Automatic annotation (TrEMBL):
Residues 13-239 form the ABC transporter domain. The keyword Hydrolase applies. SUPFAM superfamilies: P-loop containing nucleoside triphosphate hydrolases. GO terms for molecular function: ATP binding; ATP hydrolysis activity. Signal peptide: none annotated. Pfam families: ABC_tran (PF00005). It is an enzyme of class 3 (hydrolase). Keywords: ATP-binding, Hydrolase, Nucleotide-binding, Transport. PANTHER family: ALIPHATIC SULFONATES IMPORT ATP-BINDING PROTEIN SSUB (PTHR42788:SF13), TAURINE IMPORT ATP-BINDING PROTEIN-RELATED (PTHR42788). This is Taurine-transporting ATPase.
Length: 263
């Protein structure tokens, strides 16, 4: 492990009857226990409450009931950091890739000289060593997501909250980013909560895939992946079987489509 990582590993995430409501209507009512260092994928229909769950973990929303905990301490009181990664990168457009990463290091209190070296090392980890001086506007969508990942890692989070981070990328770039995420995760061993619409992405990344109900989001089914992230897994019958199971839970299976078309 490189010294730039300085990783404390991941935090265990516990959602214990976590309830978030907007007005009268709950948007999420979730029980989940995520071991430290796991990649847990959340899948669910649009508007069911996936982003709401992540925002509660980031401390941006206060639960109406229940608890969200990191290593057994409520999020609001925890000193462990959760970092959000969004579909739209939130880079500062007037700062170069390097300076965007350095900015995050400033927030962590890293001294000026160490900042430059650490920013370069982080950018190298995401494959952008030759683009440190480029402005976000000069980078492709995939490259901007790489900068965002480097900047996020600079804060040394113990939990990565990823809200459909690769949803706007083309298929090849998306696949590259999935690979990069796995590489980075192997080094940092943060816990990852990853929200996606894409069933294949869920099955390729997750140790477990949690299928949520329509609003309010509750745990509908937990699917364990016995050998997660094994190369070539997507070409095996088990993969297709799980894919089919999940699509059926989401009401998107070919059978349902045929039935509703006939009805
Ligand atoms: N700040 C808010 N005020 C009122 N309703 C909200 C707010 N944020 C989200 N919602 C509603 O809560 C539900 C869940 O939203 P969200 O968590 O964003 O869904 P998802 O990410 O699964 O698509 C949706 O019906 C959404 O309209
Ligand atoms: Mg969302």
């Amino acid at each position: 492990m490189s010294d730039v990582t300085g990783a404390a590993g991941g935090a265990r995430v516990t959602l214990d009857g976590l309830t978030i409501s907007f007005g009268e209507m709950p948007a999420a009512q979730v029980d989940l226990d995520v071991p430290a260092g796991e990649i847990l994928v959340l899948l669910g229909p649009s508007g069911c409450g996936k982003s709401t769950i992540l925002r509660a973990l980031a401390g941006l929303l206060t639960p109406d009931a229940g608890r969200a905990e990191l290593d057994g301490t409520r999020v609001a009181e925890s000193r462990s950091r959760c970092a959000m990664v969004f579909q739209e990168d939130a880079l500062l457009p007037w700062r170069s890739a390097r300076r965007n990463v350095e900015f995050a290091l400033t927030l962590r209190g890293v001294e000026r000289r160490a900042r430059r070296r650490e920013a370069e090392e982080l950018l190298a980890q995401v494959g952008l060593q030759d683009f440190a001086d480029h402005m976000p506007g000069e980078l492709s969508g995939g490259m901007r997501q790489r900068v965002q990942l480097a900047r996020t890692l600079a804060t040394r989070p113990r939990v990565l909250l990823m809200d459909e981070p690769f949803g706007a990328l083309d298929a090849q770039t998306r696949s590259d980013m999935q690979q990069l995420l796995v590489t980075v995760w192997r080094e940092y061993r943060t816990t990852v909560l990853f929200v996606t619409h894409d069933v294949d992405e869920a099955l390729l990344l997750g140790d477990r895939v949690v299928v949520l109900t329509p609003r309010p989001a509750r745990v509908n089914r937990v699917i364990e992946i016995p050998e997660p992230r094994r190369p070539g897994a997507q070409f095996e019958p088990e993969f297709a079987r799980r894919r089919y199971e999940i699509l059926a839970l989401l009401g998107e299976s070919p059978d349902e489509a045929l039935t509703s078309a006939a009805g």
